[in-house]
Design goal:
The structure holds 2 protein chains of 2 kinds. By secondary structure, chain A is mainly alpha-helical. Chain A is 78% helix and 0% strand. Chain B has 2 domains: 84 residues, Sandwich (Immunoglobulin-like), CATH 2.60.40; 593 residues, Maltoporin, Chain A. Chain B starts with a helix and ends with a helix.
Chain lengths: 212, 741
């Protein structure tokens, strides 16, 4: 009888183990997929895959984080996307991720994605939306930097916000450059934990090379 | 035993190995059969699933076995869970999803109404738009005149909407009616509204068919919703050759309450010396204005708001008398106006919301008119020249209005809502004409109910009614209102509105007789609207039937009648030309009425057949300067001279004024724009109205015998304005840090 119980325990152990075993490779597979995504549909597919992982795992913030992040990428260049609906989806993922994340560093990463979604909404009609979406996006960055002053992505996004602001309003590439350089330094010394966000260095280098 | 375990483990492996993966596929559509790309399909509690493609198809493989749940979901649709038994065979499952009722996606009624709010859906103009509309000089009414439906009436206060008189348009602040929305004016010159557009977060300009929550407005309602708490504490000042002003706004540290006060003083002496005015102002217009407010957020997310404003003004104007070559007419007015509005919006829980509005206003005009000779000395006349005698008078008016209005709102299942409530007004009017005093007091009560019924996100019906009683005429009425909106495409919709509207006769008429009934209008409106974030197109046709209008001759009664019909088009575009925002309005109006002393049903003198406005705004970020231009055109309006002949009014003379043209231009320069952490925010604003100096004729005044007529024109050809507006935001972040240490 004892052995019988043992076998059940074993079986249960196998089952539990299987779920966690699945998590790492599935995340890695989808992160690779995200890196090679080209079209809006590719990004939407990979976002949905991350969402499914998040829904199945129930305790992991990273799948929701990536589900949101994947949707921000095409929204920078695809003019056909309904930016408001897309951002709403991203913000919903951020909310789910934030509810599961406990570390300040992790919450700061989520605020970076929130900032991008709100910035994309602001860009729909900057003149009339700056005061609402623009301010909220800026507030997210500030909050993120308070939670984790060492996060290079927040500094990069701050720099990009300056970069995109017309020179007359105190922005422009020249004003953004020192911030970008600061971000690059921070990226160089940044060590991402396994599966944790590790993007932004290449983008920073790209933008810097365009300014030079 | 151990063999059994081995067997068991072996089976387990066998189980895994012997079944290859199964393909699950199908189609996901909505209830109209349209594919739903982007919907997600998930095998519950697994990583497996797919996204629906543009054709509505999905496909994925899974190694799972046995009984599972498939979840189909898409934002804005009800999710569906479908049980599935996974065996050896591939599976095909087609699913249709039902759209969720969603306030943000649901169609809203657009017939008759231009919503202008800062955060509202369906916004056409916001407060910045109003302030930067050239020609308006931040006057709400002037900016609304660039929208279809309003006439370009410049000689009288008010909005003349769709063949309606100025008094047929009413303004409402936080639910309650404003008795005297305009500064006191002298004859033939319209004055500005008393309220700044920046007091309001939402403005709805309804040109017909509006909600049962509003009554006593026959043609149009301007519904203003005041702002809640300000974003931060700030002090402000304004300096101009025409006025000075200063004020502040204090937001509590906990951001739960605020209070503020402002004072302004207008004196146009310097301006009138620089820009010659046609009339002789013997008392240069002078205005004092003070206001104060507080706002308190309540525990359950409601807000209590109080706003009060006090105005004092003096004007004296002298013009040639029309019945004489050398006499003059001197008109003077002193006005005191005190307005108070206290409102309370509260969330009562369980889907109930309450809006309680109260207001009290008192307005006192002291008016004198005198015929004067060449040396500005008073002239008196005997009764043989009674028409001249009547020009010497002294009039003291006082109008008080107290109001209370309660609206309860209940969310019904889904997004449908029910609103109902009641209101009570108490009017006090006194008028002293020379030595005779008349008093007129009255109550007005109304009950109303209205429901927005959503069948789907694409169709809504708004059904309501209003039950009113006015004690002064002792009459009752029931006014039904119905509107429908149906979405025809992604951003397009059709709306219909029908409603009956009643209004108590004007106070001056009631002084003459209270044996009168309500005046009445019935509206029928058909509207088409296509609206995206950066473009709005609206077209509207309407028919309005007037009944029971007041006739003053031959008898004083409700036998007047009339109609108005027309077509209106509006197009606003912020997209086609980068950085340029423009709108075009066009109104066609056909209206006739028989009221007052009209001898027959005819076109009133406030109605032009064609009116068009073109408004353009362009902000140059490199210059930190915005340039705004407004061009308005209206065809001539009819004018008449009635003469009493054998006990009947006859048209002794009539004509059509020349077409009206006006080009307004304004510039706003914001030197500190975008400066990080700038403490001072500065706006330099300058404008010119009627840049081209077109002759604007609003109508004609006739001499007593009708042999002479005199054009009614603005007091000066052009109007110039320049002003510097400063504000200093008080940064509270330091306080916040100190408090947390």
């Amino acid at each position: 009888m004892k052995k019988y119980l043992f076998s059940i325990a074993l079986f249960a152990g196998v089952a539990v183990q299987a779920q966690s075993d699945k998590f790492m490779p599935a995340m890695k597979e989808n992160l690779t997929l995200m890196d090679s995504s080209k079209t809006t549909e590719d990004f939407q597919k990979v976002s949905a895959a991350f969402e499914r992982i998040g829904d199945a795992e129930k305790t992991q913030w990273l799948p929701y984080y990536y589900a949101g992040l994947a949707l921000t990428t095409p929204a920078w260049y695809d003019t056909q996307i309904d930016k408001d609906a897309n951002a709403q989806k991203i913000l919903a993922f951020c909310d789910k991720a934030d509810a599961l994340a406990t570390a300040n560093e992790d919450k700061a990463e989520i605020l970076a994605v929130r900032n991008m979604a709100l910035t994309q909404q602001m860009l729909v009609d900057p003149q009339s939306r700056y005061m609402t979406y623009g301010q909220e996006a800026a507030a997210d960055l500030q909050k993120g930097m308070q939670l984790d002053p060492n996060n290079p992505r927040l500094v990069y996004l701050q720099a990009m916000s300056i970069y995109g602001t017309p020179a007359q309003f105190g922005g422009g590439p020249d004003k953004a450059k020192p911030e970008l350089e600061k971000a690059l330094e921070m990226f160089k010394s940044f060590q991402a934990k396994p599966l944790h966000p590790d993007w932004g260095m290449k983008q920073t280098e790209n933008v810097l090379s365009q300014i030079k | 035993m151990s063999q059994k375990i081995l067997f068991f483990i072996a089976t387990l492996f066998f189980f895994h190995a012997s079944f290859s993966q199964v393909t699950i596929r199908g189609k996901v559509i909505d209830n109209k059969g349209k594919p739903l790309p982007g919907a997600s399909v998930t095998l519950k509690d697994t990583y497996d699933g797919a996204l629906v493609d543009s054709m509505g198809n999905y496909v994925f493989t899974t190694k799972e076995q046995g009984s599972h749940q498939l979840i189909y979901s898409l934002m804005g649709y009800h999710s569906v869970e479908q049980a599935v038994m996974i065996g050896k065979e591939n599976i095909t499952i087609n699913i249709s999803l039902k759209e969720e009722l969603n306030e943000l996606k649901a169609v809203i009624i657009s017939a008759g109404s231009f919503a202008a709010g800062d955060n509202k859906r369906g916004t056409v103009l916001n407060s910045i738009d109003i302030a930067t509309t050239a020609g308006s000089n931040a006057d709400i009414t002037a900016a609304l005149k660039t929208l279809p439906g309003a006439q370009q009436v410049g000689e009288k206060d008010g909005l003349y909407v769709r063949g309606g008189e100025g008094y047929e348009t009413k303004q409402f602040i936080d639910g309650t009616m404003v008795n005297d929305p305009y500064f006191s004016s002298v004859p033939d010159i319209a004055s500005r509204g008393r309220f700044s557009p920046f007091l309001f977060k939402g403005t709805v300009f309804s040109t017909g068919g509006y909600s049962a929550l509003y009554g006593q407005a026959l043609s149009s309602a301007v519904i203003l919703e005041s702002i809640d708490l300000p974003e931060k504490s700030a002090a402000n000042a304004a300096i101009s050759p025409l006025f000075v002003g200063a004020g502040f706004q204090d937001l509590a540290k906990n951001k739960k309450s605020s209070w503020g006060a402002n004072y302004g003083y207008v004196n146009v002496n310097l301006y009138f010396n620089l820009v010659k005015q046609t009339p002789d102002y013997f008392k240069i217009p002078e205005f004092h204005n003070a206001d104060a407010n507080f706002r308190i957020k309540t525990k359950s997310g409601g807000i209590i708001k109080y706003y009060t404003t006090f105005d004092y003004s003096e004007i004296g104007i002298r013009r040639p008398d029309i019945d004489s070559n050398y006499l003059k007419n001197a008109f003077s007015i002193t006005n005191h106006n005190w307005y108070n509005n206290l409102s309370w919006r509260e969330n009562l829980g369980n889907g109930w919301e309450m809006n309680l509005g109260t207001s009290y206003s008192t307005n006192r005009d002291d008016i004198g008119q005198q015929v004067q000779d060449a040396n500005n000395q008073p002239r008196t006349f005997d009764t043989s020249t009674y028409w001249m005698n009547a020009k010497n008078f002294h009039l003291k008016n006082r109008q008080d209005l107290s109001q209370i209005k309660l609206v309860l709102k209940k969310k019904l299942g889904g997004i449908s809502t029910l609103r109902f409530g009641g209101e009570y007004w108490y009017n006090y009017n006194s008028t002293q004409f020379n030595d005779t005093t008349h008093l007129l007091n009255g109550n007005y009560q109304a009950l109303f109910a209205e429901s927005d019924i959503y069948l789907t996100n694409d169709i809504v019906a708004q059904v309501g009614a209003r039950f009113e009683h006015a004690s002064i005429i002792n009459k009752l009425n029931i006014a039904p209102r119905v509107s429908l909106a149906y979405r025809t495409g992604p951003d397009a919709q059709i709306s219909l509105a029908y409603g009956m509207f009643y209004q108590t006769p004007e106070t001056q008429q009631l002084f003459y007789s209270t044996q009168l009934g309500f005046i009445k209008a019935t509206h029928y409106i058909l509207n088409y609207q296509k609206m995206t974030n950066l473009r709005t197109f609206r077209a509207e046709i309407f028919y309005k039937k007037y009944q029971d209008l007041i006739k003053t001759y031959p008898t004083y009664d409700n036998s007047g009648y009339g109609y108005a019909k027309g077509v209106e088009v509006f197009y606003r575009d912020k997209k086609t030309f980068k950085g340029i925002d423009y709108w075009i309005s066009y109104s066609y109006l056909d209206t006739k009425r028989d009221y007052l002393n009209f001898p027959l049903e005819m076109e009133p003198n406030f109605a032009a057949h064609h009116t068009a406005s073109f408004v353009l705004k362009k902000f140059y970020t490199s210059l930190k300067t915005g340039f705004n231009l407004t061009y308005t055109f209206a065809t001539g309006r009819p004018y008449y001279n009635f003469q009493l002949n054998n006990g009947k009014y006859e048209i002794a003379d009539q004509g059509i004024t020349k077409d009206y043209n006006s080009l307004g231009f304004s510039v706003n320069y914001l030197p500190n724009l975008g400066k990080q952490n700038a403490r001072t925010f500065l706006v330099l604003f300058a404008s010119v109205n009627n840049v081209l100096g077109a002759d604007q004729v609003y109508g004609y005044n006739y001499s007593y015998n009708g042999s002479l007529k005199q054009a009614i024109t603005p007091p000066a050809k052009r109007m110039y304005f320049i002003g510097l507006f400063l504000s200093w935001g008080v940064d509270r972040s330091q306080d916040a840090i100190n408090n947390n240490l």
